[in-house]
Structure formats: C-alpha cells, structure tokens
Design brief:
By secondary structure, the protein is an alpha/beta fold. 34% of the residues lie in helices and 24% in strands. An eight-stranded mixed beta sheet has the order 13-12-9-14-17-18-20-21, sandwiched between helices. Helix 2 links the parallel strand 2 and strand 3. Bound molecules: cytidine-5'-triphosphate (CTP). The site of cytidine-5'-triphosphate has 14 residues, from helix 11 and strand 17. Cytidine-5'-triphosphate binds next to helix 11 and strand 17.
C-alpha cells in the first residue's frame, strides 16, 4: 500500500525518461507522495514542468538552488523519503553511485541517504552487457541497493535486446514489495484462484463467473509480504503475478491433482477458487451437433478439494472461501466446521461491490475460535491484506505450539 508513502524519483538522461512521467502518475494514483530529482541530461528528454505537474510538487535539479522548504535539498530529500527510485538509471548514474561520485543533486542525494533504493537500468543492450556496467551493478547490490532487471524488447536504437526500462506498473509493484512489511518472509503459501471449466464436448463447458481477481490479489499481497507463493489457477484473463510459482489448470480434477502435488510443506493454503461442484459424466470427442444432441446433461460430483485438505492438513493453516447469496454467516460457519478450516472468508454475491468480477469486495472473516468480523467495502488487494493479517495469527500460534 503506497498511501502517504514518500518516494523520491530520480530521473536521469536516457530516452526512457518519458516513462518517468507515467511512473509518477501511477505512484500518485496509488496515494504516494512523489518528489522528483532530475539530472541536467534528463531535462533534455523530458521537461521539469511535466514532472512538476504530474508529481504535484517542485522538481529538484540544482544542488545550489535554495528553496523555502528544502534549503539543503540533498539532505532534506534524504530525510523525507521512505524510498528512492532511480528510473531510468543510465550507465552514468550507476557508475557514479558505484564509485562514490557525488557531483550533482541526484548523485549527492543518493550518497546522503540510507533508505531502500531501487535502480531501474535502461540503456542500449551492448552498454548494459558491458563488463564495467555489470561490475558496477554487482557493486551496487553488494552495497545494499536493489536493481530491477531491465525488460527485453525493441530498444530505441532499433535493436532487440535487454535494456528496456521495465513497465512503469511493474516498477510500482516492485516499490510496493520494497515497502511492504515482511511478516510472511519465506512462508510457503498455496493459493487457488479463478473458476474451473468442465467440458462436455471440445467447444463447450460448464463454468461460473469467477474472474480470479481475489485469488490473484492474495498472491500479489502475499508476495509483497515476502511469502513463497504457489498460485494454482483456473482459466482467467489475468496476468500471473511476478515471482509466483504459477500453475494453470482447467478442470476441478486438474486443480485437485495440482493442489495435492504442491500441498506438502505449505504453511498456509487459501482456496479462493470457485470450483465447479459437478462435471459432465461424459465428454464427447466431437462437437455435439444440434440435431444429434439431447436437452439432457448428466453430471457427476467433483472432488471437494478443500474438504480433502481439511482431513489431512496437520499444521497447515487452512483458509476457505464461501460465496453465498443468503444466510452468509450461518452457511459459511457450517462450511468452516464441515471442512475443518482455521478460517473462512465469506462474501455475498448479492451485495453491490462484492463477488466475482468486481475490483472490490465486502468480506466477513470468520475463524474457528468464533470470531466474526465484517469489513467495509475495500479493494481486493486491501481485502487480501486483511485475510493475510488474520491468517498470520494462526501461523504464529502453530509455530509456538510445535
Ligand atoms: N471448494 C473446493 N472444491 C470443491 C468445491 C469447493 O475446494 N469441489 C472450496 C472452494 O475453493 C471454497 C470452499 O470450498 O474455498 C467453499 O466453496 P463454495 O462453492 O462456497 O461451497 P461448496 O462447499 O461448494 O458448497 P455449496 O456449493 O453447496 O455452497
């Protein structure tokens, strides 16, 4: 969560400097406060006015310019910031930071602070591969700076290779990771997400309206907090979150196999997937033709994956979801008990802003100790953090009871 977090964005002189504008916009949209420091060369690629307008604050460039608030800019900015991001970071700023050269406001400010600092290199592929640049990047890592891997693709010089500035949204996600509490550091979490599809011929299947957004938000939030995440997902249109071990499945049976294969060793399992309870008894090899088909579809029951986990779980914290349209608390409590869960997350499909396709959710958190907490409407990523906060209590208890 970047709300009210203070980010100093250092912009250096490369063609990707224009993407610093989008990065600033995204950071502001996430609620961060942004102060921009530009090098003289950066000003040749993007104007201070653009950065000032988007960051809603002054742009700093001249180390000798006294302003009302920042009479010694490099010291004040260093104290003010929660994190520093250098995007794009040219070979020049990387070299200067690695060698301890402080000859302008940005390099001086980098030197004068000890906050988490992320360099996002962007340059020509040959330049990036240059052993001197590579050596400087290694040095920066040794000094405790973070380096974001450049993206691969078409570069401004028309060659294809590594050296592109990563997508601004990915840089924002990296900053989220840097600033998130690390209370799940190296904790193994398995999350299921999305719907399942149960085919009855090569083109048709039974499914439900799950978008996967809640499960993917859980994977993202857990990864930010340091967890080792395995995400098993039915078909969705979402991009798998970075750094999660991602396994794509289609049917409930495939999901069961993947979950059982990856269950051993997990500290937490969160089953956010909307698993189809039934599947067609037979799958036709060819498309069923209108004139040959019948109006009947024979179904058989799918395995209840969560109930099976409840029977074998031992020390694992098991969290289920309950999607209801009535008697929310009563139905969810009964599912929690029947499936031997530590916690259940109940949501009512009928509530505005809750359920399948939305970016928000309204959840009631219930646990096996009888606690019932209904939370207000919030984004799915905020809801994911709340679920992780509650699950952590059981994780702690399990650890100390061993
Ligand atoms: N679940 C599962 N395997 C199934 C069905 C459900 O693992 N075959 C899990 C879901 O991932 C969810 C929880 O069980 O975490 C509850 O799912 P839900 O569909 O709300 O409940 P059901 O147990 O299927 O009961 P009902 O459909 O009767 O409400």
């Amino acid at each position: 969560m970047l709300k009210n977090r203070k980010i100093v964005l250092g912009v250096t002189g490369g063609i990707a400097a224009y993407k610093a504008a989008e990065l600033t916009r995204l950071l502001i949209r996430e609620g961060a406060q942004v102060r921009v420091v530009m090098t003289e060369n950066a000003k040749a690629f993007i104007t201070p006015l653009t950065m000032q307008t988007l960051s809603q604050g002054p742009v700093f460039a001249d180390p000798y310019a006294a302003t009302d608030q920042y009479d010694m800019a490099h010291i004040s900015l260093a104290q003010w910031a929660d994190a520093f991001v250098i995007a794009p970071a040219t070979a020049n700023i990387i070299g200067k930071a690695a060698a301890g050269i402080a000859d302008d406001l940005l390099s001086t400010t980098i030197m004068a602070q000890d906050k988490p600092t992320l360099f996002c290199p962007a340059m020509n592929d040959k330049m990036l591969a240059n052993p001197v640049v590579q050596d400087n990047l290694r040095k920066l890592i040794q000094f405790g700076y973070r380096i974001m891997q450049s993206a691969t693709g078409e570069l401004a010089c028309k060659v294809t290779g590594s050296g592109r500035l990563p997508d601004p949204a990915d840089i924002v996600e990296e900053i989220e990771c840097i600033l998130a509490p690390k209370d799940y550091q190296n904790v193994k979490i398995l999350i299921t997400a999305g719907p399942t599809q149960e085919p009855f011929d090569p083109v048709r299947f039974i499914t439900n309206g799950s978008s996967g957004k809640m499960g993917y938000a859980l994977a993202k939030a857990a990864r930010r907090r340091g967890a080792a995440v395995t995400l098993i997902s039915g078909p969705t249109s979402l991009n798998p979150p970075a750094a999660a071990h991602f396994i794509a499945v289609r049917t409930a049976q495939e999901m069961r196999e993947a979950v059982m294969a990856h269950f051993p060793g997990q500290a937490v399992v969160i089953k956010a997937a909307a698993v189809s309870d039934y599947r067609p008894k037979t799958i036709e090899a060819d498309k069923i033709k209108k004139d040959k088909g019948s109006s009947r579809l024979d179904l058989e029951q799918n395995p209840d994956i969560l109930a099976e986990l409840g029977r074998i779980k031992k020390n694992c914290v098991l969290v289920g979801f309950a999607m209801e349209t009535r008697d929310l608390v009563k139905n969810a409590k009964s599912k929690m008990q029947k499936k031997n869960l530590d916690m259940i997350v109940a949501n009512n499909l009928r509530e505005d802003g809750a359920g399948f396709q939305t970016d928000t959710n309204i959840i009631t958190l219930m646990d096996k100790n009888g606690s019932v907490t209904t939370l207000p409407k919030m984004t799915k990523i905020e809801a994911a953090d709340q679920i992780l906060n509650s699950a952590r209590k059981f994780l702690k208890k399990k650890k100390t009871s061993r």
